[in-house]
Amino acid sequence: MHRRMLGILIPILVTALSVSAHVGSSDVFFEGDAGPYHIYVTVRVPQVIPGIAEIQVRSASNDVRRIEIVPMRLSGAGSNFPPTPDVAERSKQDAQFFTGSLWLMESGALKVRVSVEGSKGKGELAVPVPAFAQRTLPMDRSLGGLLGFLMVFLAVGLVFIAGAASREGNLEPGETPPPAKTRRARMVMAITALVVLGILFLGKAWWGAEATNYKRGVNFFKPPEAETRLENRNRLVISAKGQDPEWSKEVEMKDVIPDHHHLMHLFLIRTPGMDRMWHLHPERAEGGAFVEDLPNMPAGHYQVFADIVDKAGFPWTLVGQIDLPEISGKALAGDDSIWTGAPLAVEANYASVAQLADGGRIVWERGSGPLAANAAMVFKFKVEDKEGNPAKDLEPYMGMSGHAEFVSSDMSVFAHIHPAGSASMAALELANGVPEGNRAITADQAMPDGMPISELLTSEVSFPYGFPKPGEYRMFVQIKRAGQVETGVFDAHVQ
Ligand SMILES: [Cu+2]
C-alpha cells in the first residue's frame, strides 16, 4: 500500500516541478501604483484549472478602505467586460493587508484587476496572471473507492428497481406475481442492465476524453525546449519546440512581442557552479528562429533560459542546454552583459555584499533570520560607489532601475524579475492598456535609457518575489551605472 502510494506521489512531484512562465515559479509577485495607492500584490496560482487563486494585497499606506478583485482575460474579447468583482477581506490583525480567493476558469494569459478605494479616492491596476494547469490531480483513493461503490450500488439498484416495478407494479398487496409477470420482469431487468452498462461505457469514454484533454493542456504549458545549435563558430541559433505538438501552431515565433526593448532575453549560465552568466538579446531571423553572435566565451556546459512573450501576453521561458567550444566572438554591446565569479557549487557565498568591477558594491538589505520558501518578500538592494556613499550614477537599464534573475542551483527554478515584480513587462503593459507605441515600459516607469537619473532613480532597487521551494539559489542583480551594466551576485539558502 505504501509503496503504491509512493508510486503515485513521485510522478506528481516530478510534474509539479516543471512549470512554465518563468521556470518552476508560477506565483505572481507585483508592486505598483493603483492610482494614489502603492500596493503589493501576490497571486498564488492554482495547480489545476479551473481552480482557486489566492490573492493577497498589501497597501503601503493606511488610508485604504476597500479593495475589489476580479479575474479577466489579459487582452482581446472579455478583457473589457469584467464579471462582478469580489471584495477582498481586510485582515483583523493588520488593517493594510487584504486577501481574497478567485476562481480561475480557463488557462492562458489572464489578469487580476485590483480596484482600491480610500481617502484619496479610487485607483485601479491590473496584474497579469499566466494561468495554466501544472498537474493532474489524482483521485483520492478513499474517495475513488466510495464513488466506485456508489456507482455499483446505483447500477445494480436500478436493475432491481426496474425488475420489481414490472413484476409487482400492479399487484394487490399479498398477491404472488404470476409466472408470466416474473418472466417479463427478467426481460426488463436484462434490458435495464444493458442500458446501464451502455451509460457507464459512454461515461467512461467521456471521462477519458476529458482527462486526455486536460493532460494535453498540462503538457501544452510545460516549458518549451530551447533547441540550440552553433553555426559559423560563434553564431548561436535558437528555436523553440513545445512539449505538446500543437504548441508551435499556437505560439508562433513570428508573433512574439517585445518585452522591455527586446523580443528575446537569453541567459546562458555555465553549469555546474553558475560561475559565469551572460544576458544577451538575440535577433529574430527569417523563419522564426533567433540568432545571437556570441561574445568571447570559455568552453563549457551551458544552461539556456530564453524569455519570450507570445502575442496574447503569455510569457514563456524556453529551456535547454548546450556544450560550447571556446568561442572568440564579438565584443559585448548595447544591453548585453556578462558576470564572472566564484562557483556556487564549491563555495556558496551567503554574504549580503557584492563587489562591483569599479570598486562600488551592491548591498542586499536582507534583514536577519532564515529565508523561507513560499513567502512573498521585497528584495531591497542599495548601490554604493567606491567611497561607500549611495551611488548617484544609476541609469535605467532597459527602461527600469534593475533586473534580477533568481536561479536555483539545480536549474529547476528560473525567474526574471523587475522592480514591478514577476510579470513580464509586455504583459503588464497589455493588461493595463498601455498604447502600442509606448510598449517599452509601463507609463509610470517610463524612463528613457541613457538619461541622467539622479532625480529619477535613487541608489536603491527592489524586487518583489518569493522563492517557490527550499534549496540553494543564486540571484543576479543587474543595474546600469554611467553607461555600464553591472551585476551583483548573491547566494541564498532557502528553507
Ligand atoms: Cu529584465
What does it look like?
Helices cover about 20% and strands about 35% of the residues. α2 (about 140-170) runs antiparallel to α3 (about 180-220). It has helices at about 1-15, 140-170, 180-220, 245-250, 425-430; strands at about 30-35, 35-45, 50-60, 65-75, 85, 90, 95-105, 110-120, 120-130, 225-230, 235-240, 265-270, 275-280, 285, 290-295, 300-310, 315-325, 335-340, 355, 360-365, 375-385, 395, 405-410, 415, 460-465, 470-480, 485-495. About 35% of the residues are buried. By secondary structure, it is an alpha+beta fold. The structure holds copper (II) ion. Copper (II) ion (CU) binds near residues 260, 398 and 403.
Brief overview, please?
With 495 residues, the chain is an alpha+beta fold. Helices cover 20% and strands 36% of the residues.
List key phrases describing it.
single chain; 495 residues; alpha+beta; five-stranded antiparallel β-sheet; disordered N terminus; binds copper (II) ion
Strand order of the largest sheet: 1-2-3-7-6
- What fraction strand? 35-45%
* Rounded radius of gyration (Å): 28 Å
- Total count of strands: 27
Helicity range: 10-25%
Biggest β-sheet strands, sense, barrel: 5 strands, antiparallel
General form: elongated
Structural class by secondary-structure content: alpha+beta
